[in-house]
Structures are given as structure tokens and as C-alpha cells.
Amino acid sequence: MLFPTLPPDARLWIFTADRSLSESDQDHLRDTLVGFVAQWTSHGRSVPGDVALTEDRFVLVAAHLAGGVSGCGIDSLVHAVEQAGSAIGIQWVDGLHIVFRDEAGAVEVLPRPAFRQRVRDGAVTAETPAFVTTLDTVGALREGGLARPAGSTWHGRTFRIPEPA
Distance of alpha carbon 74 from its chain centroid, rounded? Predict the structure, then answer.
């Protein structure tokens, strides 16, 4: 289970790399971001949090602070993630991209129009695992995981993925 020491209402941020992360990439990101979290503050208060990497593609950061993490605290997190990625040539995928598992089981990232075309072509179905990178709490992550059948997520509604016959 990811983030076992954090409560379900802990805030979650998910960052998606533009390519698969090698073991050394993951080591660098983990070491850098664990160091950041150890010193992370929001309005002078320490932010209890943790870092996890999964699927050789995602960096997840979770934190729990009474009253929430301030905008400045969130900005410092985003800056730390961007800087850590930049140091190893990683770009972070924006929300205009869809992350899913292709027919071969590989994690694929496509712009929305290309994903829509895959749906039309039948290459993406209601059962295709889609990664829900919009989850914002540890509890939501625990409830269904990061990858879920596309038909049961916002992907199914937005892209009108047909249900199986």
C-alpha cells in the first residue's frame, strides 16, 4: 500500500514523466524529492509527507497538514519536481495528455486528439487501463488505484468509450 503512514484525506499530487524512468532516474528522483519533503514547509510549518514512484513513469507526493498546504508550499513542491526532472532530462506531461496501458501492456502517453482516435479505432476499450492522474487524495488512490478500466473513469465519459456488447 502506498503512503501507509498518511491518512486517507492526505493531499496527493501526481506527476507523469514523458518517458519511462530508468532505475537510476528513479533513484535520483526519489533521493531528491525525499530530501525536499524532509525540509518542506508551508507558512513556516513542517509538511509531513512522503514520495512514491510507480509504473516507471509516475512520481506521487502525498502530504497531510492541518489546514492544508499553502499555495506557496505547493509551488515549492512543483518547483522541486520540475528541477529534479530537469536534472535528468525529464519533462512532465501536462493534463492535456492521456496516460494508459496499450494492448501490449506498456504505459503510453498521448495527446487527447490521438487518444480519441485510438478510441474510434477500437484500440482503446472500456477495459483498457487508464491512469487517473487527477486523483487528489491518498484515500482516492487507495480506493481504486492509479490505473482503472477506462470505461469507469472520466476517460470513458469524456471520450465516449463504448461499453462492451
Answer: 15
